[in-house]
Amino acid sequence: MKNISIFIMLLMVPFFGWCQSDLPTQKPLKIEPVNKVDEKGKTDKGTALRIPSIIKEEPKINFKDSLTGRKPVKMIDDRGLVQAGTGLKIDPKVGPRTAKEGSRDHFGDQSLGSIKSNGKYVGIVARDHEFVDGDRVKIYLNEQVVDPNMLLTGAFKGVNVDLAKGFNQIQFEALNEGSSSPNTAQIDVYDDQGQLIYSNKWLLSSGSRATLIITKE
Question: What global pTM score does this model have?
């Protein structure tokens, strides 16, 4: 019986050795400090990560002021914007003349020049070519009154004047200067065929006259 027990134990020895070889081995975990200390006692902080900035200028924003409304946050890049009207040039000839804006300068008698017409008559029309402010004129033909009181409006109005041989003197006397000085008008002259033969303008103070000479051969 004793011999049988010894024999069984000898058979079990290789089995126990095989089972022990399959057991996992343990490896100790080594934990090092994040910031090492060198021989001089200084801590190694490591290399800083440097990322290039994509913003040219750092925004100066105070979020406390933004919430109170004193310095609102700008959501649009306005560095390339310009003031409205930059480069705009104003033509000084546009708009009413200085004399029409209440100037007290005196505008005396004015010569409108001379023209020729061999027709039986001419048609003379006039209008206020600037601000319509109630300008009125009296029209003469060789010192004879043709129209005693013509109100100048924005539309042309006028008279037909019979021509005598030789010189025919047409005069326009300013009866007033309207609400805005001086008395202003555009004058057009048409022959008896309806063709425009003359056009001009005047600036007159009250009592001044504009004179046009029409010669008929």
Answer: 0.52
